[in-house]
Amino acid sequence: MNPAEIDALVASAQAAKAAGQPISSLKEETVTAAPQARAPQLTDFEQTMLGTTEVPIGMLLDLTLPVSIELGRTSMTVQEILRLGRGSVIQLDRLAGEPIDIYVGDRRFAEGEVVVLGEHFGVRITRVLANPASAAAVNAA
């Protein structure tokens, strides 16, 4: 339905109301001109989700996930943060040479090391964590 049809329908309803007629007395073609809503066709999705089969990995291959690299962490007071300026150094909780954490989404996915490629920094993955349970075990150690 385009805006002109909507305006015509509203005007007809207001005119019927002003004349004391019920809205159901509007022209039949005005009421039936609206497109009929219909349920989306999700048969492939429903069969996959309702069946006992696993979701094909191909459905996930073009999914974009955020990747974060964590060099370390620290806690600072607001006063300390306000004192920061150009050239300030923030000490992190990691020692030099310790592996950095690589997160995919909000889960720790791997460990790596910082490398320099020309004028750019990069990360070389040194260990991929098998599952979240192994990541929790590594964090506890």
Q: Kindly, what is the distance between the CA atoms of the first and last residues, rounded to a whole number of angstroms?
A: 63 Å
Count the E strands: 4
Measured by DSSP, the beta-strand proportion falls in 15-25%
How many alpha or pi helices? 5
Topology pattern, helix = H, strand = E: HHHEHEEEH
Q: Give the radius of gyration.
A: 31 Å
Overall structural class, as computed from helix and strand content, comes to alpha+beta
Q: Give the neighbour order of strands across the main sheet.
A: 1-2-3-4
Helicity range? 25-40%
**Main sheet summary:** 4 strands, antiparallel
- Summarize model confidence as the mean pLDDT: 78
Regions with little confidence, pLDDT below 50 for 5+ residues: none
What is the topological layout?
Layout lengths: L2 H16 L9 H5 L10 H8 L16 E4 L7 H5 L17 E5 L2 E11 L2 E9 L3 H9 L1
Antiparallel strand pairs: 1-2, 2-3, 3-4
What does this structure look like?
- The protein contains 5 helices and 4 strands; from the N terminus they run αααβαβββα.
- The chain is of the alpha+beta class.
- Strands 1-2-3-4 form a 4-stranded antiparallel β-sheet, with no helix packed on it.
- The longest helix is centred in the first third of the chain and has 16 residues, at 3-18.
- The relative contact order is 0.08.
- The mean pLDDT is 78.
Concise account of the structure shown:
By secondary structure, the protein is an alpha+beta fold. It is built from 5 helices and 4 strands. The mean pLDDT is 78.
Question: Descriptors for this entry?
Answer:
single chain; 141 residues; alpha+beta; four-stranded antiparallel β-sheet; 5 helices; 4 strands; 30% helix; elongated
